[in-house]
Amino acid sequence: MLLRQNALVLIILSLLHESNCENTLARGLGDAYSWVTLGDGLTKAKETGKPLMLIIHKSWCGACKAFKPKFAGSEEAKMLSSHFIMVNSLDNEEPTDPKYAPDGGYIPRILFLDSDGHVHQEIYNKDGNPSYKFYYSDDKTVVTSMKQAIDTLGRKTMPSDEF
Q1: 29, 31, 101, 104: which has the highest count of C-beta atoms within 10 A?
Q2: Which whole-number Å values give the CA distances from 124 to 16, 23, 161, in the listed order?
Q3: Kind of pairing, strands 35-36 and 85-90?
Q4: How far is the C-alpha of 56 from the C-alpha of 100, rounded, in Å?
């Protein structure tokens, strides 16, 4: 009886530890990324001068489900993500401002914003369908756009960087 109780306690502790370690904002896109909400992300981008990368996706979307493990497993995207404020917007969190749907409301959609919150429409999936410029189906094309965003937007020099 005591052995069963100890085993049960260990199982419960293990589950609690797992749930505390999981990044609840990852939503299948990778716990290794430093995800924040859009509101927090816009604030952090302004404070740090870093550009923001926004992934808009839905829980019921087949293309989103297929994309998530590719992005989550990309070592190169993880490395490049340190140059960005990372945001993913799921389901009803999708921003309603038309600037977040520059060529339509399809999903998944990835946008790059400067630290002032302006969407840069020149950064898009150059290897994709020209009718759906911000649609990505794999990590390789995202990495290409991340590199372009770093080159284009970089990090603005903040007053504290001058000292």
Answers
A1: 29
A2: 40, 27, 30
A3: parallel
A4: 9
Does residue 158 surpass a pLDDT of 90? no
- Which pLDDT band, with edges at 50, 70 and 90, does 154 fall under? confident
Q: What is the second-level CATH architecture of the domain 25-156? A: 3-Layer(aba) Sandwich (3.40)
User: What is the token pair recorded at 31?
Assistant: 């716990």
pLDDT bucket at 1, cuts 50 / 70 / 90: low
Q: Is the pLDDT of residue 163 over 70?
A: no
Of 150, 137, 149, 153, the C-alpha closest to 74 is 137
**Residue ranges of the domains in the chain?**
25-156
Q: What is the 3-state secondary structure (H, E, C) of 84-100?
A: CEEEEEEHHHCCCCHHH
Burial class (CB in 10 A: 0-12, 13-18, 19+), 46: middle
Contacts of 35 (CB under 8 A, 6+ apart): 23, 25, 26, 27, 29, 86, 87, 88
Whether pTM exceeds 0.90: no
- 96-105 b/e (C-beta count within 10 Å ≥ 16 → b): eeeebbeeee
Which has the closest alpha carbon to 103: 81, 127, 123? 123
